[in-house]
């Protein structure tokens, strides 16, 4: 029973292929019957070949004609084939019926090949959907329960066992494992994940069991956004494709009028006989049809979209794949784009008689009571050290925090806050603090002491300083260098941060032009200025404040992992897992797609011109014209599939 089921599935998915095979079989039998003198049998088989091979084209052509009042190439092919058959019956030259059947067959084969090419592209895109699980193993009252993904609720804890797909985006609350994220982010190597880190739906869990906490709705997971974006891209035609489709409609009308003139004037102008005239007019309808021109663009762009999806680059439509290859200037947001957006301890310096670990443990003891990002960065840096949580903690907004650790007062904060509570600030620490601040880092001062009964006053000493910085992404510098090699005329940074910090990050990654202390509307104005100068400008950002600039830019690029919902909705391209290096890959894809589209259009027009000239000179017959016409269509379709290869 397996083989009949598979055969049924194949015929349903490949109707065009089955029709082409049956058409070829009937055509062969009809040709054989004709040459054996079985005329009646041949006149039964050949019309059947016409019907089976040309049914779909005739249906589409008539639907377009009746509903949209437009002519298309499918109808032109059918008219040419039926015209050849009618001419053959009229002149009793039955080989012309064979010619018409060959036209139908080659057109059917071409349709089958184009269908195969498009299915291959769609299969690459649909493979993303296989990365989603239908159910998740949820902990409910201490017991595991399998429930549909659609029934998950915020805060649910999900258990993922070794070798299973991650069912939805979540934060790890227990466990440690390695995850294969290749299908989501394009990373070739598994990545280690532990408590507190986010994992993406569609990732393949390695050797360790994980417990995840659902921190956002399952339908807004990264993979679900990917699928929605790709489905949207498939349904939206880029401007070039829309132009070609409009051109085809007008072109088809011109071809019909020219075909009618071709069928009437030659006997009067050049003295052709009517049989030759009509035959050449029918061949003209075939070779002048813009099938190859129609196939020059969309297969290429869909292949590029599928390629990008595999590498963690989501194009919302084909127009943006075209546009990204034409970008001449690019603007980057700083925080969360060129930097990780997460502050960390970058350096520690201790005063005399103290160690760096002393400074960290004392600061962490107080900051462990704080929710401030800087405080959390200090606690994270001291995670492997031993310290006791402070008591009687008091935070002074805008200045710092104080508390008692082992009967000693501890102060952690800015220089002014510490200076108000200590005897003096060590000169060496002041010099180092100034250097760090000039490099764009935030300096946290740490002081400790106790109440001296002898003098009836506290003796507080500064024990060290801690530098806090938003780390530059490791790949940022290489990305900027690669963009320059790709021909970017200008690369700028747009940020709401202060000039000193902005200049520090820009210098680290190799960007010369910096616009700092910008509001969202200021970023928008910078993009407009760049567009006046370079026309096509890209903007890369992640935050809500980047949304206006992303919308204004010729191509808006959002960071998929860290990006806000507003930024993701506004942007034209999404970089999954925040991989900056994928920007250059996207630009290269855009350039390649533009090149391939131009090559395909050149091939299509060349074939049309050559076939028209040879038809007028009488050097080709109808089957050869069909082979040349449909061959060029298949050629440009297969050419577009080159973008499926990385």
From TrEMBL:
GO cellular component: plasma membrane
GO terms for MF: ATP binding; ATP hydrolysis activity; ATPase-coupled monoatomic cation transmembrane transporter activity; metal ion binding
Compartments in which it is found: Cell membrane
Keywords: ATP-binding, Cell membrane, Ion transport, Magnesium, Membrane, Metal-binding, Nucleotide-binding, Translocase, Transmembrane, Transmembrane helix, Transport
Topology of the protein relative to the lipid bilayer: Multi-pass membrane protein
UniProt KW Cytoplasm keyword: no
NCBIfam families on file: ATPase-IB_hvy, ATPase_P-type
Name of the protein described by the UniProt record: Cadmium-transporting ATPase
